[in-house]
Write a structure and sequence with these properties.
It is built from no helices and eleven strands. By secondary structure, the chain is mostly beta strands.
């Protein structure tokens, strides 16, 4: 099970920190990805962190503004989002890949949370 939290309403330029807490599986072996789906848009990869070596990747639209981190001791992954823009408005999902790879492709992941809403608006 994956549970996201930390979403909310924030003004442009503001920050939010999303959390994804995992349970019921061996977290250390899984890579974790963050995805988002805005209104009328397809789900897109935002960031990911691999298992074992902590390799990270980011979508170009968020690179330099978002930072992903994982804490295996707490079965948790965070997504720190700074300098938020209205186009970042979406439901944000975390997902787990049992092969441990950092991938921005949703099909690689077989466990998904229910999402947390992020709204960036003045």
């Amino acid at each position: 099970q994956l549970v996201e939290s930390g979403g909310g309403l924030v003004q442009p330029g503001g920050s939010l920190r999303l959390s994804c807490v995992a349970s019921g599986f061996t977290f250390d072996y899984h890579s974790i990805g963050w995805f988002r789906q805005g209104p009328g848009k397809e789900r897109e990869g935002v960031s990911c962190v691999s298992a074992y070596d902590g390799i990270t990747d980011y979508a170009e639209s968020v690179r330099g503004r978002f930072t992903i981190s994982r804490d295996d001791a707490k079965n948790t992954v965070h997504l720190q989002m700074n300098n938020l823009k209205p186009e970042d408005t979406a439901v944000y999902y975390c997902a787990a890949d049992p092969w441990g790879r950092c991938s921005m492709l949703p099909d690689q992941y077989n466990k998904w949370g229910r999402g947390t809403q992020v709204t960036v608006s003045s």
